[in-house]
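Worked example 2:
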Amino acid sequence: MKACDLRLRKTSFFIQQESKNRLTFDLKAGIAGVDKGDYKKMPGQFIIRADAAPIIGAGHLMRCLALAQALRTAGYSVTFLAHCQSKSLHQRLLDGGFQVILLKYHHPEPLDWQTTSEVLQSFQDAWLVLDGYHFDSAYQRQIKEGGHRLLVIDDTAHLDRYYADIVVNQNLNAQHLDYSAEPFTRFLLGPRYALLRPEFLSWLDFKRRIPPVAKKVLITLGGGDDQNQTLQVMRTLQNMEIDGLEATVVVGPANPHTTALKSEADQSKFPIRLAYNAGNMPELMGWADLAISAGGSTCWELAFMGVPTLAIILADNQQAIAQGLEEEGVAVNLGGYGHLSREIIARKLIEIANAANTRAQMSQRGRKLIDGQGTARVLKDLLLQ
């Protein structure tokens, strides 16, 4: 069966699901050819509300995907409710067998909550999983006032109040943050709750080889990279003198600079492979001797795979991650992209590329920090609620 879209004429979203028929509808007027009661029967014990765009990247949706895959394996239905500007990421969710409700607008636009609340009314017993810095305390409170159970995936404790049943923060500094929350809120804090997708778990027994000189470099700077730091790193590598150097560049699903990246790769003096919306990240990380990564959730995957990493801070929320990983000896924190020069990146890269013992220690510490069981731990706590 082919996925078809059921488009709303008057409200702000449409639904993608497996269906033989194409139907148009709007909630207020009713569904063409389908009774409203049928809409309310759509599966969805878990609804995931997260967004993806060049500015915010794809990290929120991708870590939610890890939880969604675990829930589905456990026999639960999952529906994504998302403002997603990436067609390839949207298709990835569909290919995973998930129902996807696309929103035209996202919070704080009023139509976000209007649409979300209408959907929640159709899934009276559902959990809602919420991931995104733009969802404020009032948004959480409205979800709870509607009688729904709520899990929030967070990084910074930036809100005045958390109304969730469960807050998950997988970062190293999570236990030191000052959360203001309800008496019933449970906290799952620290890297032991790192959300990894199932494809990583088959690499649990992977034995990494540490070569004398790191020649295989993986560049992965997030799903969006609106400032095109990927291009700057690619150009930095052109000035490096390492025999046999080669690179793989992960081009995220929300990256708007694909043409420029392809042009740079074509002109490179050494082999550069572009991996668009890569679905084989464990294989790419297994291939790499060294990674240059944004300081976001990908760092947990790199640590699990034992990849020595140079982390670049591309957003404020990544500062604590990069700093914490450096303190743990898992990564080198290059600092914020606004203060980085090509010379600094090149110097650090050459230093680590030629330090096999340092890379071996970084790899071992990463594997120790992230054991791959984080998603299972979150799922266990979630299903015990």
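The domain at 201-369 is CATH 3.40.50.2000 (Rossmann fold). The two ends are 36 Å apart (CA to CA).
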